[in-house]
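Quick illustration, no need to memorize.
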Amino acid sequence: MTSIALCLSREDAAKSRADEVFLWDGTAGDSFNTGLRPDLRQLGTVPSVNADFVRVALTVYVADHSVRRERGGSNWNQRDFVLTVPVVHGEEWHAAAAGFERTLAFLTGDRWTLQFAQLAPPEAGGALVPDTAVRTVLVSGGADSASGALVSAASLRPGGGQRLVSHSSSGAGASAPQQRVAAALEVLFSGTTLHHHQVHLQRRSHRLNGTRFRREPSSRSRSLLFLALGLAVASQSGHGLWIAENGFASINPPLGPERVGALSTRTTQPWFLWRVGSLLTELGGYGEIENPFQALTKGDEYRRVVELVGAERAAAFLSATNSCSHSDQQYLGEVASGSHCGKCFGCVLRRAAFAAADLPDATPYLADRGGRFAEYAEQRSIENAVRDFVDAGVDESFLMTIPLPPGLTVADARALYARGLAELGNYLG
């Protein structure tokens, strides 16, 4: 069991007896590389329950990335965490803790115990300026979220606006495609307005005492903080948060019986999104979350973009996004961080979607460059596993055991699963 504490003052950090202590006080010497202050003022006037949720999500995020899993297993090597998080609504969070603990266990495969330190309510600010944005959309820089932002922009009336929220923890490699998406939308939909919140929030490499944190490379909780930041922004307009991902990936089918939920993280799994939103609403916070592509494959999603902006613009827009699962290509030299390998699952699904939508793909893939670049990509190739996955067909036992939210039936999930497999099979041949 590992105890983790998030502290908002040096005094509290010094008194903590947790195994790992993270300080977030907005000073240069705290535990985070970020311009975001603990009061979240850069995001606007955030309701206190949603500000609490940002702190909960941040603590989960740093715990997940700072405690190593044991190697060699297929069930994500379950860890045991006890978190202490400062919150304004301590009584309400204590009452809701068990529900959040079960939801986090589903997300990461670990055991979580949530404890809370009482935090004084924030001082009352000035008059709240109404947020007239029609929608808030999470933009990661990937093709799914970019498509979601485009579909949202296309739905706006002249003069209407939306807010985009992005999070990065690795610098320019992630932020550049996010900026490209925002810039492209301003050109494609010049009669509308958007405000882009780009939040860089990364744990520093060293503890407060100067020793180095351990680093866990798996990333099951990678988007929980992203989701919390998006809800913090969306709460101010009350018009909903979109977290866009193709429905095939969101239901998270396994590549094989020994690789449960290996296609993606579970952060957009429909039951998970519904459960997080429900728990926050019960707490008195804002939790309206929607995946606009829940019923679509990635190919369907690309075709929707074509319908809205035409094939030529759609191809250019989608080719400028980033879907690769690997971020270390820069070690090859002559290759910018964020380049696509062409062989990981993210790249294979991306390439299959371009083919399904009959769109030219201008993405530069290392696998297509030959020489050491192709060798690098082949070492990371998951194509054979995907072929076996397609040949195996729909896993009925998986469908009978996954939780689904109200309104999504097993028959719906099965049909989506089959269509996603067909797109992959058509691409791989």
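The chain has a mean pLDDT of 90.
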